[in-house]
C-alpha cells in the first residue's frame, strides 16, 4: 500500500516487511497504520491510496475503521482480494516463508490460533463453509459488513470517497477467484460460478456503499491483461495516474 502526497520512509513502514504481512492480523496492521497516518502532517487535508494485493484490505480498513483520521480522497486498488480468497495460496517451492504459513492455513484456517497468527486467514472465505466463515473469520466479514448487525459508519466512510478504482488482472493466479479484485465472488455457500459484483448481496443491499458509488459514477471496475500486479505502463497512465492528481476526475 502506498500513500500519495507523503514521503513514506522507514519509520512509517508497518512492522517488519514481508514477515509482518504474513504473521500480524490485519486489524492490528490497520491500527498501526491508522496511528501513523494521523501523525503525518502532510496527509491531514486528505490523501490518495494506491493499494497492492493484501495491502488493499489494510487500506480499506484505514478508510472504514480508523476514527478521526484524515480523509482518503481516491482509492486505487491493484489486485485486491476484496471479496476474499477461496483457496490456500500456491507457493513457490523456494519460498520458505509462504510455504510455512500456507501449511498453517491448511491445518485449520478458522481456528483461533491461525486467525491470530496468519494474516491471510482474515480474508480466506471458503465457499462451502460460509456460516463458519461468518462466525470465525476475524476481519473480512466485519470489513464487508457481512455480519447481521450492519455498521452504518463503514458504509458512510466508503461513500465519502471521491473515486474507488478497482483493477483486476485477467491472468491473476494469486487472488482466487480473480474477480474478487472487483468484489465478485461465489454465491454464499455455493462453490459454483463467480457472481459479478452487481449480483451480490453486498452490492444490491449496499452493505458498504458500493452501489451508491456506482450510481454516482465514482466506482470504476477495470480489467487489465497480465498476472498478479504486473500492470503495463500504459494501463498505469490510464487507470492510476489520473486519480493521483489534485483535479482527479469524478467520472471517466
UniProtKB/TrEMBL annotation:
A Pfam match: Palm_thioest
Transmembrane annotation, as ranges: none
Keywords on record: Hydrolase
Superkingdom to which the source organism belongs: Eukaryota
InterPro entries: AB_hydrolase_fold
Record-given protein name: Palmitoyl-protein thioesterase 1-like
Organism: Coffea arabica (Arabian coffee)
